[in-house]
Structure formats: C-alpha cells, structure tokens
## 1
Amino acid sequence: MLSLAAMALATFAIIVPASGRAAPEGGLLEQVRRRGAVICGVAPSLAGFSIPDREGRWTGFDVDLCRAVAAAIFDDPEKVRFVPLLSKDRFTALQTGEVDLLSRTSTWSMARDTALGLNFTGINFYGGEGFMVRRKLGLNSALELAGASVCVEQGTTTELNVADFFRGHGLKYEIVAFKGSEETVDAYASGRCDAFAYDRSGLAIQRMKLATPEEHVILPETISKEPLGPAVRHGDDQWFDLVKWTLFAMLNAEEMGVGQSNAAAMRASERPDVRRLLGIEGDFGEALGLDRDWAYRILRHVGNYGESFERNLGRDSPLKIERGQNALWTRGGLQYAPPIR
Ligand SMILES: N[C@@H](CCC(=O)N[C@@H](CS)C(=O)NCC(=O)O)C(=O)O
C-alpha cells in the first residue's frame, strides 16, 4: 500500500507537467504566440500613462507594461496591439476576451478582483482620488464643497468614492457622470459642474490640458486609496503569473540597480540575485513558459520600474510626478516585489 506521502507525490506528479515550458494547450500564452502579438487594453488618451502620438505610436507607463510582456514573450516590444478603452467598457473587454490584458489606470478593488472574474497582477501605481475646482471659488478644502455638483467619469471608482465622501460627511451633492474622460473634462471646463473628481495623478494631467490651468486648483484631500495595476481574466494561471512577474522583474531590477543601459554589462555580475534575474543562473523563465532570459529582454527593451516611471510620469517627463509612495520600499516607498528565487 502506498504511504500518504507517496500518494501525495503520485498525485503531484500527475497534475504538474514535467516541463513548465509547455504552455497549457489553448492557454492564452499559446494563443498570443500563435497570433504574434499581445492585445493590451489601455486608456484612450492620458499623457504619461497611455497616449498615441500623431503616427499612432503608443507611449506611457501603462503602455510600457504591455511592451514588457511582449518583450518577455517575443523579445520584441513592438508586438503589441493597443485597444483604447473607456473606463466603462474596460472590464467587459477583458472578460469577453477582446483584450489579453488590461493596463489602464485601473484600481484593484475587491468587487473587481472577485465578482467581475478578474485577477489584478500587482500594484504599479499607488494613487488616490481628489477634486479640482476653479481657483476663484476660493475653496481650501473639499469639506467646503457642500451642495456642489461634481463631474465624474462613468464606470470608475470615482463615482463611488465621491458618493462615499459626501455621504460620510453628511454633505449634499450632485454627481454628473459622463461616458469618457474627454467628455468629463469638457463638461467641467464649460462650467457644467463646480468640481471635477478623478485620480489625483490624472487631475494634474487633465489640468495641463485646460485653457488656463492656473485658474484651477486641486484641493488637498485625498479621498480614497487607488492601487492601480494590470489585470487579467480568471482561469489562466500561467498568463496571470507571466504578467505578474513582468512587473515584479521590473521592480526587482530597479532594486538591484539593473536597468536598460547596464543590463548587458550586468550579465557578467557575480551577484547571485542579479544572475538569477538575468537568466545566467537558474531558469526561472521555464515555469512561465518563457526563455531563461525573459527578464533580460524586458530590461533591454523597456527598462526597469524606476526608468519607466521617470521617463513617463516623473522627472524626465512634463508631469514631474514625485515617486512618493511609488518609491521602492528600500527608499521609504511602498513598491516591493517578491524575490526571484
Ligand atoms: N482608477 C479609477 C479611475 C480610472 C480612470 O478612468 N482614470 C482616468 C484617469 S485618472 C483615465 O484613465 N482616463 C483616461 C482616458 O479615459 O483616456 C478606476 O479604476 O475606476
């Protein structure tokens, strides 16, 4: 008779494929490989996060994540098809398989992670929501917004956060919801509402688009937690792992001081963690269904987390968003990735 341990091992041997590299048949990675491109759902036009230029070339922090996934799979960051999605349409597009992955300023919330049938693969931006108002109103705090009308975008956490904020403080308010961010900004700009509520990073970006940005102020309160991250559908763990470890590799690389310009040279490093990251020692790509240099490809083509942040949102961009909570945990921030080992 088999001992319990032997039975457990026998079961294990049956359910775990001998080689992780053989992607499950019909799995998303296999489909993406056959198609020759990753289909990535992004925000239609949000400078810094995702925006197409006049030639239709997409750039941004969320766009980089899509390119990093393509780099890991194809060794080519261009093998991505971008699908611009309004907030209200993004989760349906992911659920129905119109996109393989959503990289679109999307807040990880419990309902989205459970009832909507999605998995968030990590947090690539810690943010929060707030309000913008006209400077001439002379407001110093969101608590002075009693009776205000607030422009918001449909299908966002903003709609819910604004309702919570006013109800929680016993203040009267009116929400006016619009179908896309352009409509929402235009409505605020034309005076339809007293206030415009949005992710604070987005508010700063949209403020720059207004005719007279200096006539608008962002109130000091942050009314919610908005942990933004990429999301995939429930049901394909290998794809979930792949997207998750793409972000983790970018974070770990920043922590190790490995980036786009020195990745090649760092392959000669003696440091064991750097050698594992770059695929010199061990083969961590195999279990993802990828080659052993999967993370090296990401770094060479896209760069590490900090490089992507500074280029798109931070000091090397017009937005100049501070790292703040998005600094690495080793520098007083919240960004922390599990180790590659
Ligand atoms: N984080 C919130 C809001 C998401 C959202 O729609 N954000 C705005 C900016 S903060 C956006 O991406 N707009 C860009 C666009 O629609 O092009 C959520 O997940 O519901």
Note: The longest strand covers residues 129-134.
## 2
Amino acid sequence: MQKSFFLSLFFVGSLLCSPSLAGGNHDYNFKVSRGDAFYKFFFSTGLSGKLLTKLMASDERAQRLNNIYPGDRFRILLNEDHSLKEIIFSPQNDNPLNIYYDGKIFRFQKADSRSAENLTYTIINIQKSLNYDAKKAGVDAKVRQIMVDHFSWEIDFSRDLRKGDRFVLSWNGEKTPEAMIYVGDKKTIALFSHKDSMGRKKYHTSKGETLNDSFAFSPVKYNRISSGFSKSRYNPVLKKYRPHRGTDFAAPAGTPVYASAKGLIKYVATLSGYGNVIYLKHGPEIVTVYAHLSKFAKGLKSGNRVKKGELIGYVGSTGMSTGPHLHYEIRINGVHQDAEKIKLAKKSVVPNSEMPGFQKRAKRILEELNIK
Ligand SMILES: [Zn+2]
C-alpha cells in the first residue's frame, strides 16, 4: 500500500503528463489532452526510448500512435518485471488497436466488429534474411521452407529483400499459415491458402493462381529434337563418347528462343563450351540453360525477370557446336534432367466455382491485416 502510494507520488511528480494509476503500477491509463503525444505516455511508464524506437519501426500501423486527438485513450500494461506487455489504443472514432509485445516482437491486432473469427498473425520484419528473421519471429523450419518455395518465384532472396521489408503470416489454427503476405518497398505479394479436391493445401494469389509457372516443352517454336538426353553420346568435336545432359533442338540460325517459364535471369555469358548461354532460375530449385546462341535478346541482363514465352535470344552455333541448334537443359537442384521425360509441377488455379468464396476470404484477410 505504502509502496504504491510513493510510486504514485513519484510518477505524478516527475512526469510531463499525469497518468491515472488505476490498477496499480502495471496498468497505466491515459486520456489524451490537447498537446499530448504518445511518447510522453510511453516514457511515463518507465519504458525506454530504445523500445519506443523499436516499436515505431516494427510496423507502419505504429504510426497510428502519433496521430492522436483529445479524448482518445491509451492503456499500457506491463509485466511483473516492468517490461512491456501490451498497449491498447482506443481512439474515439475508430476500433481499438492492440499491440502485444512478447519481449522480442510486436504483434498488432485491430479489433474489428465485422470479423467473425479471431485472426492471429506473425509479422516478420526483415533485418538480415528471411530465414534468420522468420526464425527469430518464431516461425518453424517447415513454414520457412513453404515461404521460400512460393515466394522465390517472384523474389530473389539474395538480391531483392531490403531491410524493413515485411512478411505477414496469418493463422487460423492450422500448422501452416492461412495466408502469407510479402510487403516490400516496391510490391506486395499476397498468397492465400486453398485446399484442392485431394485436400492438399496450396497458396494462390487473389486472382486464384499459384505463383509457380507451367513449363513449355520447347523453348523454340518448331521443336525437332536432333539429340536427346543420354548417358553416352559420340561427340564429333571432341571425338569422344560423353554424356549429353541436355536436349538439342534443331533450328536454323536466328530462330527466336523463348523462356520456357517465367524466371530470373541468372547468367548471360559467353563460355568456351556453351558459347553464348543464358541461365534462368525458376522458383527455388529449377534452372534452365539455353546454349550456343548466335546472340542475346536486346537488354537482357542478369538479375532481371522474364515472362514465360519472352524472347531471350536466337539460335546459333557458338561454343563447342557442329551446326546451328539450341542446346537446352533443365536442372533441378543442380541435377540435370531429361526434358523429354521430366514432369514439372504446373501452375494451379482455384476452380471457378470456388473463386467467389476464395476471393471474399482473401479480401477479408487483407482488410483485417490492414494491407492494401
Ligand atoms: Zn546439346
């Protein structure tokens, strides 16, 4: 009793504003008056400037705390050890915003009378890498892998991620997320779960498509195979039997060569064996190789992205080649595959009959998370 009385005196006497100390020194309630600022309330509870900086940088919704009006209310709850537990911001003309803190990350939740379910979510704030920061946010290895498998069709994790980019995972009680959303400086990619007729969970954009692409069988229009994939083939240039780890498409010099699926340009180079060659990376594990090109398409640069069917070069006979043809390879995790036999996953689409429900749910999740 005595202790809390002195604490009250201490606080009231030393503060810029006068908090009402309802519920003792772990529960602070403030009503905004003209000229008040959130940081004053925050500091009056004894929390540090470092934590405030972390809070404000954790999520753009934190900016809402700087946009306050007389009559709005704050409640700041502390743990027994006086560390931050929760901030509840109750503006007069909007739903309350709850900010939970577990000692590591901030979790934002806006009470929404429209939502039937109680959505929970994880925010991964990129400081180092997806893997590092997701682990730090408590995301397990399986879910981290799912994120890489999907987002790497659109994001090159080694070049595209920037400090401050965020991934938001929303959960509905299952071990894998209901939605996974990347919010970057330049783009937002939102994926929503959907179960197919076999009950397999896949992630689709709000248009209903998965991020992966189906592969065209041939990167040239007229696809006569002059030499298939083989373990031992006579090489007339080397005059030796050697494995042929690709598929040769016969085509006149100058025939356009197209990307067989959407991907990232990994290398555009001139090598002694392959001649003019392009490596495309598709998703987390597939690489396609286009060799002996006479020339590259204009403006082709490593690090850029190409669409499926985009012109990337022209058939030629550069490098170790006996005549114009396209040498084409598919590698999965670095292992050469036979393009004529390999079955690659196809882009999948939410069935038309399920689209209205799927899109309604996607819209609700984005609204709930306050993502545009
Ligand atoms: Zn070849």
Note: The mean pLDDT is 87.
## 3
Amino acid sequence: MQSFSELTALLESKGIKPSLQRLLLLDYMYHCHEHPTVEKIYADLAAQGHALSKATVYNALTLFVQKGILRIVHLDNSEARYDILTNDHGHFVCECCGAIYDEPVDFDQLNLQFPEAGSIRQRDIFYRGVCKRCKDKG
Ligand SMILES: [Zn+2]
Ligand SMILES: [Zn+2]
C-alpha cells in the first residue's frame, strides 16, 4: 500500500524519527488487517526474520497510538488490538473463525446519546456472530 519513503514521510510528519524498526512495524500494520495483538505482531515480524524485541514493538506501537497513526481496539477480552484504520468504524467479530472485520458505521446517524460525556475521544461499536464466509461454508 505505501512505500518506505511514504512511510518515512508519514512518521516525520508526526515528529517521529523513522528508524528501520519503526518502518518495518508500520509497513507490517499497513498489510495486516487482522487487528493484531502485540504478541502476534512480534511473532509475525520474528517469523519474517526481523528480530525486534517485544519492548521495541510495544514502545513503537504506543508511540504510534499517541500520534494518531494507530488506534487501539478492545474487543472480547482486555487484550489490546492495534488497528491501522483510525477513522470511526465498527467491527464485526466472527465467533466461528475469530476474524475481525472492519465495517462502515455512520455514527452520526445512530443518534446515540451520552449525556454524561464531557468529551469523546473514540467511538467504538462491535457486533458478534458468524461471518458470511463461515455461514456460506456452513
Ligand atoms: Zn468466520
Ligand atoms: Zn478496525
């Protein structure tokens, strides 16, 4: 999706020093649409021959989230998952295959009321069930 020079420009525009490790991580995130956990990111990068430490991966992810390049989503459990899509969108979780799908949700049309909210940082919504792919197999 993005070349390394584009990723470099993105990091620099956010005031992040574009080290090779950060570029590898960002490149991985642009290609992974599974909302991976830090464990999965670490394992996949290691499998690709990139020996980043878990602390390096975690620290870079945290920095990317702070700078608005990634978003954290919490679904079923407390484990943080990282999402390259930073606009508001919904998730559909398949209880059959475990896939997490990005779904377009028009939050403004939902007209949900949160009278106690002082300010809202992120809007999340997720539905669970069986995805089309699993259902068609079924
Ligand atoms: Zn499924
Ligand atoms: Zn998502």
Note: The chain has a mean pLDDT of 93.
## 4
Amino acid sequence: MTWKVGNLELKTPIIIASGTWGLGDTLLQYLTPQELTYAVGALVTKGLSLEPMSGNPPPRLMETPCGLINSIGLENPGIKTFLEDYYPRLRELKIPLIFNLHGNSEEEFIRLAEILREVGEEAIELNISCPNVKKGGISFSQSPEVVFELIRGVRKVFEGFIAVKLSPVGPVMETALACESAGADALTIANTYPALGIISYEPLRIIRGGLSGPAIKPLTLRLITEVSSRIKLPIIASGGVMSGKDVFDYLLMGASAVQIGTANLIDPWSPIKIYEEIKELLRSYGRLLDKGNT
Ligand SMILES: Cc1cc2nc3c(=O)[nH]c(=O)nc-3n(C[C@H](O)[C@H](O)[C@H](O)COP(=O)(O)O)c2cc1C
C-alpha cells in the first residue's frame, strides 16, 4: 500500500492525532519502533507553540458516555525544548512527522514554520482553533479572511506540506475554500467540538472543553462529505475513529487518510489493531475507493 495526501506519501492511511500520544516518550513506552513503522503512516506532534505553555488548571478531562471532554489548554514545552529533547528520538523512527503548530498571531505561526524549515522538516498542521490575540482573542477559525492571510503568510516561508486543521464549528465551508485558494496542501477535518460537562453539584464543578471520541464521528463524517463535494484539497479525517470500519467509512466519504486520537488514550495499541482491520476491509471493499491510492 501507498497512500497519498497531496504530495505527502504514506505507507498506511493511519495517522496518530495530535495531543493523544504525549510528546513521544509515552507512545514509545507501549509500542516498539517496529510496530509503529508497520502500522502508522505518519505521526502528528503535540501542538507546539513558540514559548512553553503550562495549560489549563484542572479539571482537564471528563469521560462522557460516548466520548471525552478535554481542556488541556495546549500544554507543551515550546518548540525549542521539543526539538532538543524529544525530536531526535522521534526522527529515528523513520515515520513521517507532521508538526502541529499553534500561534497566538500570524507572526507566531510564521516563526514556528521558519524554525521547522531551518531543521529541514517538511510537513506541518496548523491548529487554527486557537485564539488570535491580535483580533481580541477570537479563534482564527471564525474568520475565513484571517485564515486566508495566515496561510499565505506561512506559505511564503515554508515550501513543504501544509495541512490546516479546521474547527468543526463556525464558517467551515468558507474556511475550507479560503485554505484552498491560499495554497494549503490539505485539510484536517476536524478538531474537537466545543462542549461542557458537569462533574459535581456540590461544589459545582464544570469542565468546558473539546468533545472527541465515538460521539463525534457521525458529525465529522457529514462535515467531510460536504467539504469533499466542493473542495479538491485532500482531506485528513479526524474524529471518533475506534475501528477499521471507522477508517473505511471516512475513506469512502472522501478522506485520503485518517487520524486516530482518543482511541490511543483507551488503548495505545489501537493503531495496530485498526491497521489489521483496515487491511481486511480494503481487501473486501478497496475497489469502492477511488482516490488514486494503491
Ligand atoms: C487530550 C487531547 C489533546 C489534544 N491536543 C491537541 C493539540 O495539541 N492540537 C490539536 O490540533 N488537536 C489536539 N487534540 C485533538 C485531536 O488531535 C483530534 O483531532 C480530536 O481528538 C478528534 O479525534 P478523536 O475523536 O479520534 O480523538 C487533542 C485531543 C485530545 C483528546
């Protein structure tokens, strides 16, 4: 098998989603490099910022009947520490790495892309669900014009693969069109859905965060079907993948590759199991896919 997402070539259609496998060390506690290279087409790093971020105060996670609400707050050690302490071990894996980036302004995104270009990296995923401090803290994803300018700016300094990770709420179609005309290479659809959970009544403890897991798969599947009917950019699906069938459903509805997120938190071997399942499904139903993948 080879899988193409624009000019990015993957050995399998399975990508491990940002923020669900630590910074590298956690994943490597469970999976051997051989297992990873066998099943995984690419790894998306934890969201990285210019400066370290300590994230949100607790509560940070709440399980719901069909999903998970997280309010991690983009905790990360900053790109410099990541490159010094975690990157060398990940690079040895010989699996394509996609760097998930978040900036508080267009300038920060551009600087992050420049740093990665300087170390010779060739693939980034822009998390546009983060707040834009220059626009009063409103998320980039709420304004297709701002997203257009952002991608144009990043494209000027970064020739490699640029995926834009869309928020599932707001002007999704307009944002996807803006990404296409600004020169992005792919769309990741989508990030988590804004949600709220009640943890206890006395004292009242609530969590506001992003919902992920099986609950969101039908919502994201619909979003991908709609976007792929109007936009030619390759789509990387992200939302509620727990099985090979989930992967196949996304491929059938227009995705070129599929990310596994919350499933890793339940079982770090999920990517291997899901890969075995998707191989079977591709044998039986692969003829139904027409994405230029082989
Ligand atoms: C604990 C946790 C941390 C996450 N951190 C990030 C992040 O840093 N950047 C990002 O773009 N998405 C992040 N995500 C979103 C996931 O990458 C994924 O898009 C989302 O969870 C939907 O997929 P899933 O239902 O398979 O989990 C995070 C999700 C979870 C559950």
Note: The first strand starts at residue 3 and ends at 5.
